[in-house]
From TrEMBL:
Protein name (record): FAD-linked oxidase
Superkingdom per UniProt: Bacteria
Cofactor(s) recorded in Swiss-Prot or TrEMBL: FAD
PANTHER family on file: D-LACTATE DEHYDROGENASE, GLYCOLATE OXIDASE SUBUNIT GLCD
Parts forming coiled coils: none
Gene3D superfamilies: 3.30.465.10, 3.30.70.2190, 3.30.70.2740, Uridine Diphospho-n-acetylenolpyruvylglucosamine Reductase, domain 2, Vanillyl-alcohol Oxidase, Chain A, domain 4
Keywords recorded for this protein, A-Z: FAD, Flavoprotein, Oxidoreductase
Record-stated family: Belongs to the FAD-binding oxidoreductase/transferase type 4 family.
Tagged with keyword Flavoprotein: yes
Amino acid sequence: MTLPAERTFPRVSPGLLERARAALVEVLSPGQVRHDASTLENYAEDESDSGVYPPDLVVFPENTGQVSAVFRTCQALGVPFTPCGARSGKSGGSLPLLGGVAVSLERMNRILSVSAEDLTAVVQPGVITGDLMKAVEAQCLFYPPDPNSWEFCTMGGNVAENAGGPRALKYGVTRDYVIGLEWVLPSGEVVRVGRRTIKGVAGYDLVGLFVGSEGTLGVATEITLQLIPKPRHVKTALVIFDSVHTAAHAITAVLKAGILPRTLELIDDVALQAVDGRGFNFPAGAGSAVIAEVDGNMEEGLFAELAWLGEICEQQGAREVLVAQDESQREKLWAVRRVVSTALRSLRPHKISEDIAVPRSRIPDIILALKKMGEELGLPVATYGHAGDGNLHANILYEGPHQRALVETAIRRMLELTVSMGGTITGEHGVGHAKREYLAMEQAETVLELQRRLKGFFDPSGMLNPEKIFPAPKRS
Ligand SMILES: Cc1cc2nc3c(=O)[nH]c(=O)nc-3n(C[C@H](O)[C@H](O)[C@H](O)COP(=O)(O)OP(=O)(O)OC[C@H]3O[C@@H](n4cnc5c(N)ncnc54)[C@H](O)[C@@H]3O)c2cc1C
């Protein structure tokens, strides 16, 4: 996440708002339209730390027809409207920057079907990701995308951000599992795109376009997902290294050898220092760790695969390979990874976390370059995350607001280094509000303009989720 300077946008006039409130109560019900202070406060922020932008009204539609009616009402009156799910986003996508109407999809939270025969599930957008995972696993099916926020984020938010998680290394991200959508366009028109079959290539890939559109091209009101059979066994190991550089090289060596674990999560020296002793004591001299996890149906094969992975890591200089023998040991290893983000605050009171991604072969280079940058600027940098797929959470740790200018220099340099290595400024959290001013580092003006035109085609009035993703066009 990035800290853009808080900006002031024009607000909707009180008269127009009153007309909007009255019209929305007509198409919904009084209990579905709220503007009390505590509701507005709740919907003013997400997890991006990128500002506080309260809406003027929050509406809670309960079906597709109501979502459509809300959109039509806002369009007719010229009031901006912004969709939201659980507001766990880390790029400010759900922030109603211009105020207006926050459209919460939280009440549309039913799992409509799970089909073991077709290997599909159909869900409403407000379903919590973890609830879907549990429901399909009860039928021996598997929905692999696992953003670390799975216990509280929604499927609609996952679709909008094309969310990914540790298992993306082997199984891919949300886009790889969404095959069909019921979609309400900014005009209020309802369309069905995609399919219910596993294969299908008819027409343009509108599902591919809408997934990852960050709530700027319409909203998902029904999501059709493909599933896979649940692997019967999972085995996990913690591999200890003396330095992050050795660990990064070992990750590359494992993948090069032809092993595709379902996760390869890296913890660097700074992050390791922060988590050491919190439920797990690292051996003396440990300077980095990797959590490697493999899955499949044959348990013996998985132990053999982990042993092979361990040998490769040892050849690269690993000090120790600890294989979890049962579920409680496995849980203990994952607890180490889960606590990293909070534990970092024990080193410095503030942190900015960027979700950069680089081509896998550049992981050692980017880690070294970020450490060097941190030393030059006097700001510790902690790197951890999904190193197996090149997506790293690079955290700049700092003391307080007096270091803000320095932190902004560090963010810019970090993103420049990432792009210079063929990487991207965001591997999973999206651009939204937080990274809007950095997108031009990665994408040419012609590409930005093409996307602005797409947005203009779907939303000519620009009332849906305004001022997001794309920086203002350059004046010639
Ligand atoms: C502790 C923590 C860990 C996280 N870990 C990960 C991770 O591992 N991987 C990852 O990818 N992300 C992660 N995130 C970020 C976040 O959880 C994801 O981006 C998630 O997909 C957001 O879902 P949400 O329901 O909270 O959406 P919100 O934050 O409410 O909204 C996000 C965007 O989706 C749009 N939107 C919401 N609902 C719909 C809809 N039905 N149709 C269209 N657009 C819609 C909004 O307008 C907004 O632009 C993490 C966040 C936290 C706080």
